[in-house]
Amino acid sequence: MKKSEFKAYLREEIISILSEEPAKDIEAKTKAQSELNKELEKTKELTSDISTLQEEEDDDEKEPTAKDLAKGDSVTTLANKLSQTTKEMKSVVSKYKDAEGSEKAELLSRLKELTKIKKELEGLL
Asked: CA–CA separation, 111 vs 123, rounded Å?
């Protein structure tokens, strides 16, 4: 058998083998492959969500750095805000004692607001 005859024979064999597989099988395999791809995408999204959650948990467990402590909600800043609120409450109370009528009602509402703020700051400390 010559080389050219062998190539022709091989080609015919391959074509006959491939043509034996019906189009339905090809469609079924394509559909199965697309479903598998969808599942792989879901898995990829879920693993990325899990890794994000793990990173957040790791961040929560770490000790605060100097940069974190320098942020606006540090204990010293909250303590300063609390002392300012307390001072303001004292000044409003002294004005409340001397006030009459509608001014007294306004000062009372301001005292209630300051009390809420004070309780929130104490809760944060």
From this structure: 18
